[in-house]
Amino acid sequence: MSLGLILALLYMESDAMAFALTVGITILVGTVLRITGRHATNTLSRRDAYLLVTIVWIAFAAFGMLPFLIGGYIDHVTDVKGHIRDKAKTRYSDKLFSESTASAAKQILLTNGADKYSYSIVGYNVGVKSGTAQVDEGAHENSLLVGFVDDPSFPIAFCILIENKDSGYLTTEQVAQVLLDNLKNNN
User: Pick from 11, 24, 46, 107: CA 20 to 30 A from residue 127's CA?
Assistant: First the structure.
């Protein structure tokens, strides 16, 4: 949560206060629990350990939810049976990011596209980010390419995933080239 607060302050996002309140609440609760348990014995039975792990998981979920609940991004909380237990007023915005954050992210993606993909995705000014993910305990690797075309007359965003990328000769860049060419020719 501290990292979220730092980033929200750095990029002057509107949800900085929600993160600040959450950090404060978390520190306050932690301090109260620390003071309350300072004279407790430090032995745990197996049953105590199971209970502790369960409580910690619930606490992590609850404290992790706080910035979203305080910020108005979550409008209700449901229990296991699907009954609404807490209702809040959601604050909607027409922007996901501030203009400066969106502009910076766009420029990073466009620079990456120009530097690394202009030779393989030809004819389009693309902003892209690629990645891989190992699966089956590292035995296989998936390939991912997400991006957009920076052309107001051809506003296309794409996400391409190739599972087990080493099993063939097809790359995400080749798929992107064929996809964009076909979309451009069929418009």
Answer: 11
